[in-house]
Every structure is written in structure tokens, then in C-alpha cells.
Fold:
Amino acid sequence: MTLASQAFKGLLRRPDLIQSQGYIGGRWLNALSGKTYTIIDPSLDAPLADVAAMTADDTNVAIEAADEAFQQWRNTTPNHRAAILQKWDRLLRENEADLGLIMSKESGKPIAEAIGEVSYAADYLKFFGHECLRYEGFMIPSHAHGRKMMAIRQPVGVCAMITPWNFPIGMLARKVGPALAAGCTAVVKPAESTPLSALAFAKLGEEAGVPAGVMNIVPSAREAASEIGRTLSVTPTVRKLTFTGSTVVGKILTEQCASTLKKVSMELGGLAPFIVFDDADIPAAVEGLVQAKFRNTGQTCVCPNRVYVQAGSFDEFSKQLVKRVSELKQGVAHQRGFDLGPLINSGAVEKLTAVVEEAIELGAKPLLGATKNPLGPAYMTPTILTNISTNMRVAKEECFGPIVALQKFETEEEVLKAANNTEMGLAAYAFTQDLGRAWRMSEQLEAGMVGLNVGLISAVQAPFGGIKQSGLGREGSIIGMDDYTELKYVCMGGLA
Structure:
């Protein structure tokens, strides 16, 4: 019995969704080296599965398979691609309990959130399964008699996809859905911590009718991540690379992609401001912050990292926030009844603990938490800090965890300047009942996405992405297929 079989014994309706090999050219394969690596269940701090440790050599095989498959897939009809995506959507929903459990055990995401992510992922397959039926070019008024002019959309080709551990199925579907709908093929490198979710996703894609080579999954250990990323970036056969992850890595990949001038989409780091004005509905703002900040135990790119509360409401907001966060239950992620799970690993806890300790040494006051968590090495106690100064790391670095740093402000001009004083620009939030102020915030906050009086903003029909150093391009929405196509102008003469 394999390690994964033991870890999931009796827990899944479909044990065959647990795959530990890579998926290349329609076949489940071991790494060419024969090596595997072990992934850990962060809730239990225990080995979960041994997975094929693929490298650049395996990646090159996957690229060749994707290129070969592209020659036929590009010529399929939108109706054919739509039928496959829509069947895939149904299969995800039918197996959401199993997929959610797999995701929860390997990522530490609370089970209810994990199952919700499966539905979210299925929404992308469904959306782009419909969108490809009406995705079209356009006719252009001709400047000369006897000519017709048009612009047509064609698939860009083989697409490389590097996906994150915090949304291992959701981000994959958000990339694969539009790519396959457009007629492209894919080579996917999932995060080293969460390959089982991606492989289960591929298993259901195979059942939905995705042809061999159209989607390939290359799991790898951390040691091979940079070489695989470079291979995907510099290989001319790959015509587009999409990455969700840190700004540091995104910059490296973008620079490497420049050697072949391939298309890139980058969804990178965030340092989101969350602004509460005196005229806000305070209970609603508290709930909005809890929803935005503590989703996935604070491990999302759109989590608020800098919380600004106007002076007149600061004390009441802080009081209500402490009470609300104290009510959150933390425990084993794949067991029901918990709002928070562990962080992705013990290293993340150590890093954030150091950030909190530094803030306290510099004068921050803990209102809640800032204590060692007894549940295990990957667990961090929800923490609320006040008396924050801008020289603290907690005020200027993205904190991927359950930490809220509260800062007081006096005027709209002051907080707007502080909120925009960053190289990042992914998401921003503001709570106010002043209609004019709401419009000013929506226009003047330097972010790709703004939530006004709401803490959860992501939706399949909305364009997701950032500005400044938070990324390039947009995912989802009616423009989600654009980056997976080339726009070709055609001018036809001799028609007079």
C-alpha cells in the first residue's frame, strides 16, 4: 500500500483520484529519473504522499507532447471544446467532496473553503465553455473599393502554467479553462506542496474527453522549480507563460520569457490596504475584514495587509474586531467545524512569528494572539496588533497569515497617500457610506481591483489582476481568453 493510499484510506468515494505520477501526453508517468518526493499534511505534520519528482527533462517531453497535440486541438470547433469543458465542469461538481478533501489535506485549507474552491474552479470551466461559443473577431470598414478587412482570433499555441499552493484547483481552472477554450494546449507545473489537487483535476479532465497532450502536469520538488521555470520560459515552442505567485519569482520569469518574446500573464504579490472611515457601517466593516483577511487562514494574495481605521471609529472597530476574531475556531483543516487551519508549513509560521516579535519590540501592542499555538508546528494563532509604525515589517511586507495590523488615520487625503505608498497594486478595500467618497476611492486607489463595502471580490465574470508590481494581464471575465490568442488582421482584395 502506498503512502497516499494509507493517508486517504476509507476517506474518498473515488480513491482513483489520488495520482502520484505526472501526466504527460495522456499517460501517467514516473519521473525520468525515477525519483519521488514527499508532500506533508500541514494539519497533522505527517507525510501524505510520495509524488514523481519531475525535472526539466520531463518538462521538455511535456512541451513536445503539448506541441504535437496543438496541431489538432487548434482545429477543433468551439462547440467541441465547449462540450469537453462543460462535461469537465460537471465532473468537478460531482466529485467536489473528494477534491475538497484532497486539497484540504495537502494545503491545510479548511474543508468548507476547499469544497467551495472546487465549485469556484468548475465555474471557470463552465464560463469559458460558454464563452468560446461567442468569442469572435470583427469586421473593419475598408478604406478601398473591392477590399474586405477583418480581424480574427487564433490560439497562441503551447501555454506554460505555474500555479500556486493556496488555490491549487481554482487557479489552475482559471488558466486552463480559457486556454483550452481558445484552442491552446498546456504544460502545468503545480506548486510542489499541492500536486495531488492538480493531478486529480487532470484525471477528471481525461474523463471529460481532454485529448492526450492537450493538458500535461509536471509535478516537481522545490529543488527543480527554478530549472523547470527557466525551461518553460526560454523554450521557443512555448508561446505563452502564466504565473501566479510572488513578485520576486514573477520578475525572474518575465525576464527569462523576454528571450523569446512570449506572452506573459503575471498575478503577483499584494499588499492590500483596507480602509474604514468614520461613516462606515462598523459591524459590516468588521465582517468584511474577517472575510477578506482570514480566508484560507490569511493565505491569499488579496488579503488585506494594511488596515487603516479613521480615528473616530478606531476604538470601537478594534473592540468589535477582537470579539469577532476570538470567535473563529482553528483546528485540523479536513475536519468539519473549523474556520481556520494551519499555514502551509512550519517555515511560514516561523517567518511570521519573527515579524510579529519585531513589531512588538518596536512598540506594537497585541490586542489578540501573539502567542505560540499548541495545535502543531504549522499553526499560527490569529493575531491583532495596534500602535503600528511604518518602519515595521508587518506594515510594509506581505504577511501571508492570520495577522491584522491596525493603523489610525485622520483624513481621507492622508489615508489615500498611505494606501498608495507601495509598489504593489493588486486589491484595495474601503468601507464608507458616503457615495462621493466611495467613487473617489474607486478611482484614486492604485489597485487593479477595489472592494467598496465588501470583503470578498473575486468572481469568475470579473477581471482579476493587478497594476504596478502586482502583475500583468487579467484572468477571468469576458476578456479572459484574450491573452491566449493572437489577433490577426486579414485584408482581402480583388472583390470588385
Summary: The chain has two domains: 3-268+471-488, 272-459.
